[in-house]
Amino acid sequence: MADDNRVVMAIGKHELRLGLDSGGHWLVLSTKDDRHWTPAENIQSLLPLLEQRHEAVTTLGTEQASDPPPWDDLVRYALSCWSDYWAGLALGWLEDGYPAAPFRDTVRSLKDAPERTEIIRQRSLRLWCELTKP
After folding, report:
1. What H or E segment, with its residue span, contains residue 17?
2. How far, in Å, CA of 87 to CA of 110, rounded?
3. Phi and psi dihedrals of 97, rounded to 5?
4. Is the N or the C terminus of the chain less surrounded, counting Cβ atoms within 10 Å?
5. What are φ and ψ of residue 19, in 5° steps?
6. Sign of CA dihedral 26, 46, 38, 9
7. Global pTM?
């Protein structure tokens, strides 16, 4: 791992770390083989962050970042991905207070998705109703 990269947090148990390069740009760093990539190149690698409470992830000191953190991209990806597990964790972030308004259209689609479990559809419906209250 290059010395000019600063690790911000571990990503699950898979030898991946989320960090910042010397310019303040977000990177995913592999401690196994010193590879790195941007979250946009492989947002899927960040999914294990959803297993933590959103406050534990989103409140870390990222004042050195020059780019916005990848949290919104992560939540949007998880809500739209193939897995009800990850969609459920992303819904959990939204239900626990992570700003849900940017995901209004995604939640609307999720509540009506026939391939999703009833639990995911019901949680999405409850959140949708909260988002559409006047």
Report:
1. strand 16-20
2. 9
3. 115, 0
4. C
5. -150, -175
6. positive
7. 0.92
